[in-house]
Design a protein that fits this description.
The structure holds 2 protein chains of 2 kinds. By secondary structure, chain A is mainly β. Helices cover 0% and strands 50% of the residues of chain A. In chain A, strands 2, 5, 6, 10, 11 and 12 form a 6-stranded mixed β-sheet that branches. A 4-stranded antiparallel β-sheet of chain A has the order 3-9-8-7, with no helix packed on it. Chain B is built from no helices and 11 strands. In chain B, strands 2, 4, 5, 6, 9, 10 and 11 form a 7-stranded mixed β-sheet that branches. In chain B, strands 1-3-8-7 form a 4-stranded antiparallel β-sheet, with no helix packed on it. The mean pLDDT of chain B is 92. Chain A binds chain B through residues 4, 6, 32-33, 37, 42-47, 50, 52, 91, 95-99, 101-110, and chain B through 33, 35, 40-46, 48, 55-56, 58-59, 89, 91, 93, 98-101, 103-104, 106, 108-109.
């Protein structure tokens, strides 16, 4: 079974600065999908960014980018120019290729991101 | 296009009662996933359904829990004879297909409290 580990329960960053949230995972599969979800105080889960394992290029969505290191099984999220609205829980998630019997997302325990004004 | 709807948003039950949680996927989505989030934890996958079929229930407890997604109407997660340990937030997500790169769109969750 796959596992996802987020080793930082809480991170704090000054507004407008850059912060990196770490995520590692364990899998024996060669093809898979990785996601970062944001959960603000409203508890609504919002997709931030996704990465296909077969793609070597790191995904980027505006101020959000990832550093995907497949050999190291690492998938960190970098948030540039942090804004107050970025304050939330951030969850890293893994998904197997379809049909493998593991159709749901496997989530880490989350990192609570605090933005200091 | 309305998002994923879940109701109720908050549900209080006494031990031994039944809890029924409803999820209406986004329009055009025929794939539904249920997750449970315990306090201070990430979401844990419970079950994956397509219309009228359970595809993967590997994360769902064998006893007291059941799920359905009928041809008409919302998906239902049913918990019989609830216990205090069932207190959690239950999230439903939907997607238009089973392609693993597809985004799963999440509902706002139902927070179940068992007294």
């Amino acid at each position: 079974a796959q596992t996802v580990t987020q080793s930082q329960p809480e991170m704090s960053v000054q507004e407008a600065e850059t912060v990196t949230l770490s995520c590692t995972y364990d899998t024996s599969e060669s093809d898979y999908y990785l996601f970062w979800y944001k959960q603000p105080p409203s508890r609504q889960m919002i997709l931030v960014i996704r990465q296909e394992a077969y793609k070597q290029q790191n995904a980027t969505e505006n101020r959000f980018s990832v550093n995907f290191q497949k050999a190291a099984k690492s998938f960190s999220l970098k948030i540039s120019d942090s804004q107050l609205g970025d304050a939330a829980m951030y969850f890293c998630a893994y998904r197997s290729p379809s049909g493998g019997g593991a159709d749901g997302l496997t989530f880490g325990k989350g990192t609570h991101l605090i933005i200091q004004p | 296009n309305a998002g994923v709807m879940q109701n109720p948003r908050h549900l209080v039950r006494r031990r031994g009662q039944e809890a029924r949680l409803r999820c209406s996927p986004m329009k055009g989505h025929s794939h539904v996933y249920w997750y449970r989030q315990l306090p201070e934890e990430g979401l844990k996958f419970m079950v994956y359904l397509q219309k009228e079929n359970i595809i993967d229930e590997s994360g769902m407890p064998k006893e007291r829990f059941s799920a359905e997604f009928p041809k008409e109407g919302p998906s239902i997660l049913r918990i019989q004879q609830v216990v205090r340990g069932d207190s959690a937030a239950y999230f439903c997500a939907s997607s238009p297909s089973s392609i693993p790169n597809n985004e799963q769109f999440f509902g706002p969750g139902t927070r179940l409290t068992v007294l």
